[in-house]
Write a structure and sequence with these properties.
By secondary structure, this protein is mainly α. The protein is built from eight helices and two strands; from the N terminus they run αααααβαβαα. The protein has a two-stranded parallel sheet with strand order 1-2.
């Protein structure tokens, strides 16, 4: 059922774009961004920034991207990744399923899984200091630097 709706969204993209911008005025996109991407610890600026990124993208482009993701499968590529890889996920991410992050980190030979907690789908933004520390420690360990 999702695929036909995405095709309708492509066709109605200009109308959907207009209604999305109009709904921004009543705050609805801010609410949906908060629920789908954050854990309630984001700043107003982070929430607004994330919401505006979504509104600036054409609904038709977003629908095409979602259609592509439904068919995207690189599971055979993961074991061939030969560089140290850091997989970072927000503990409360409702957009990326936990099993997907675990599968990636287990399939990539030199992967490490790090969990931002608390953190949602926008954990990189919401927990930016924790994210930076995880990346710093991972990079230092791989480069043989003292932490």
């Amino acid at each position: 059922m999702l695929e036909p709706l995405l095709h309708v969204a492509i066709g109605l993209s200009p109308l959907l774009w207009l209604t999305s911008w109009l709904s921004y005025l009543n705050g609805f996109p801010l609410l949906t961004t908060e629920i789908s991407g954050f854990t309630g610890r984001e700043t107003r600026g982070q929430l607004n920034f994330s919401t505006l990124i979504g509104l600036k993208a054409s609904p038709g482009i977003l629908a095409r991207g979602t259609l592509a993701m439904l068919k995207f499968d690189e599971t055979n590529t993961l074991p061939q990744i030969s560089v140290p890889t850091l997989v970072v996920v927000g503990k409360s991410d409702i957009a990326t399923r936990p099993f997907a992050n675990q599968r990636i980190s287990q399939a990539v030979p030199q992967a490490e899984l790090a969990v931002l907690s608390p953190g949602g789908h926008m954990g990189l933004m919401e927990r930016n200091q924790q994210f930076a520390e995880i990346v710093r420690a991972f990079s230092a360990a791989r480069l043989g630097l003292k932490t």
